[in-house]
Amino acid sequence: MESEKVSEYWFMDYYRVLVISTGESNEKVVSVDVYRRTWPYSDYSELCVASGRYCLLYKELVPREIAYRFSRFEIKKIIVTGVRAGKISEVVNVRWLIEGQVSYSDLEELFYLSWKLIGCRGPLNTPWNHECTDLVG
To answer: What digits encode the pLDDT tens for the residues 51-67?
Structure first.
């Protein structure tokens, strides 16, 4: 992958947002680092290895159900990913497949919106200070 196709942005010194050009016209993947100690979804898919001891968890969200709209790009797909090791399940990432142009302020909004999608307020003053609630779905 060529370096000019990947841009990296940091929030709170610990949370990274990657913007990856896919090579398809104006399509990009925006990958947002998030963290939640629990997996909040009941309806999701998983891919496991090591006899089911380690699993990748993923939940695809419907973009049209997201009330937030951006004027410079269209959201094509949203995927929340997590991991499970034994009895511990955590959310680690939200990926946005978008088409169009994205600015730094758009990335900041996607960063905090990603936290909201996993039921958390997101870090405000310190990187580990975020509040989460239960989600249904």
So the answer is: 989 999 999 998 876 76
